[in-house]
């Protein structure tokens, strides 16, 4: 069930009670000084960390579509993101790189980081988030091609389980020309490997 962008007071209260119960089950006292306000803080944090459920990317992005004759590749790289793994509810974080080949429409550059945040602020898996971003850009722009690459570190791998602190996951979604044309895909991947241009 989807919710609005903000939790209702009843939902916040229910979440706070759940956090208090977790503290008790873990063996601590939710009434001690350091934990008295923790349920409220956690409820507020989770409201922020999952606000993407209440946001429709098409509504937010449709206002920033513009006609354009350009057909050159557009890339926005190194978009920082933070998300929560749906398997262990632990953070994963990293960078997103997005490219597209316009077909009469372009999107305001600042909207692509907004799009990333909408999908990141949900319980997620990196693979699905990569595809969701690419598909949304493709659907909105009817672009000739879209490429999305995400590189991320997962605390569920770093803090528990295999405990590999230096590992990271790399996922990609390629559509249209980025999937069919190796030169287009190679140009995108080559450009995101290089550092920023000095001006």
Instruction: Enumerate how many helices there are, as a single number.
Output: 8
Rg over C-alpha atoms, rounded to the nearest angstrom: 20 Å
Structural class: alpha+beta
Helix content: 40-55%
| Largest beta-sheet details | 5 strands, mixed
Order of helices and strands: HHHEEEEHEHEHEHH
Mean pLDDT across all amino acids: 92
The fraction of residues in strands falls at: 15-25%
Strand numbers in spatial order across the main sheet:
5-2-3-6-7
Shape: elongated
Task: Describe the 3D structure.
- The chain is an alpha+beta fold.
- 41% of the residues lie in helices and 25% in strands.
- It has 8 helices and 7 strands.
- A 5-stranded mixed sheet has the order 5-2-3-6-7, with helices on both faces.
- Helix 1 (9-26) crosses helix 2 (38-49).
- The longest helix has 18 residues, at 9-26.
- It starts with 8 loop residues before the first helix and ends in a 6-residue tail after the last helix.
Which terms would index this structure?
alpha+beta; 7 strands; 5-stranded mixed beta sheet; 199 residues; two-stranded antiparallel ribbon; 8 helices
